[in-house]
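Researcher: I'm comparing several assemblies side by side, and this is the next one on my list. It has 702 residues spread over two chains. Same procedure as the others: predict the full complex and return the structure.
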Amino acid sequence: MLLKELTEAMGPSGFEDEVRDLIREAARPYAERMYTDVLGNLIVEQNSSAPGPRVLLDAHMDEVGLMIVHVEESGLLRFRALGGIDPRVLVSKPVRIGAEKRYGVIGSKPIHLQKAEERKRPLSMNELYIDIGAKDRDDALRVVKPGDVAVFATRYGEIGEGCAKAKSFDDRIGCAILLDVLAASVSVPLIAAFTVQEEIGLRGATVVGERIRPDIAIALEGTVCFDVVDAPGHGQSTVMGAGPALTVQDGRTIADQKFLQFMVSLAEKRHIPYQFRRVKGGSNDFGALHRSGTGVIGGGISVPVRYIHAPAQIISLEDYHNTVRLVRALLEEIASGAWPLGNRIQTG
Amino acid sequence: MTDNNHREDLLWILEGHGGPGFEQDVARRIEQVFLRYTSQIRRDAMGNLTAVLPGGGERQRPRVLLAAHMDEIALVVTKVEKGGFLRVWQAGGFDARTLIGQEVVVHGKRALPGIVGSKPPHLTTARERKHAPPLEDLYVDLALPESSVRDLVTVGDRVTLSRDPMELLHDRLAGRALDNRASVAVLLETLRFLRPLRHEADVYAVATVQEEVGIRGAGTAAYGWRPDVGIAIDVTFAEFPGQDPDRSFKMGKGPAISFGPNIHPKVFQRLRDTAEEHRIPYQVELTQGPTGTDARAIQITREGVATGLVGVAVRYMHTSVEMADYQDIVECGRLLAHFIANVDIAYVEGLSCY
């Protein structure tokens, strides 16, 4: 299990290099063919001559992050977000910057010097700085430059009972699942796509869908989970520990009813717990994949992630393992012909 | 210069957790380092930890007390909610905005890692998002089932921030509890610089307790040791955009020496002269009333104590990413050592002559 390495690696949208290198090495023993495309997606093919439909499994490598955009005279760094980050989670957090993974911290004016009304107002991103301990602008520019990217400095660790905390479970958990599934080498023509730039609009998956033209596509994700105090049932989206979450409808996709039923029946047959993702918003790479070419059947399977897009996220490791079980079972079922190609509308 | 200083000891002391009233873990670590300088270690009923270094004065020896509080701001569990989520209140002043997404340690039957959560963004209205959630709306998530939480955690258990110290450019460190363990390191540096010097005065180096809840330890420490001169060591504000210029000190430019009604004018003057004489960089901090430091209590202990206040500039005070420059800590220790070496009975007698 590479979860520690995968989640601690740096890979904001457009800067997925470290993650890609890790995955490339991990996937190599199971790859029949492995290549990158012009955007930086890493594509691993397996069992291409096996009979049956060509299955594309997708997990995105990128995470939400920050980009340094300006260096102040004081040596403090101004930044903007790469992907969706709630600025309220940034204060009092460390980050790691650039290839050297230099530490920086995001602080704020001390509480002692704030007026009461200041304290009631969340800080916005343009009031925050990354501080690397530089004495002034020139001192800072010796070691960082505008355009350098940064990610949260959170370490992977186990927490509570059967849970883990880290940054970037969205979507390194998908990457870990996909690597586990590759290692299982189920006898179907499998294309594993580790994509780039999901967080800024599913851009990597868009071109992967065009290139691969799969018969079936499934996005493996980490998804919103707010099964916490003060959250009413309808707002929880998913429950941690209740199994992989199947997408019914999100911001970009309405699930194919037949394929969703196929996944549900299989989970029940194999006694794998599952749940439905219960928010309408958000999306994953399947939102791009299902519209590629003449359209692709498939869906989204997600691991619930508490505090998604925040510095310290939590998952249930049982959810992770059950998701691997479900995806493997799907491939085995597809390999056995249970999802006939005839289910796909032929436009020939 | 960094080879034999106390930087590594500071990093080790920072690994300890100790909020107001539960400083024992931190005290144990500090004691280990104190023991390199003296076998005379004392604890009082409040928990103040003192290293006593007898002076070389022949007759009546002056008594100098140094006080650096060792407690850090902390939280306390007030309720276990349905689902096992914890509500907390504070011991010491938190900006609740800095706690969202923060990793913490809950000191239950064992140390439990936790993460602070708030009401999810997609369940808050646009109007609500304009207001920062107050501390009572936040919760600690232990990723444990409720039954396990109830076994392991009870109301009243303490919670501290979790953050490994980070090394930044130059000799700068960032992490939690540099307020006021940076000043504990100043105590240690003072003892290091004092060792080769001859000093008449008896020195009482005290790591005090419960400063963050209203300066409760320093008073009993000063009462017990009856010092002639008491110097508090506490961090001050490093410059940051939007701060007033008189509350903005430069990191790396030496200790700040305080001046104002809480400070004995002759102690201030001597500290400044000492810095000039030994070419120690320094800054002057102006205060207009009782300071929010141990100096506040020391000055009015017993019949009154001639009090001074020094400290290093720290950025982002009361967050988990407080930042200090270790060179300031070294220089502050050098300043105090030379100050102490210069204290004699004549100086002490002069402190009451106005």
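Model: For your comparison table: Residues 172 and 325 of chain B are 4 Å apart (CA to CA).
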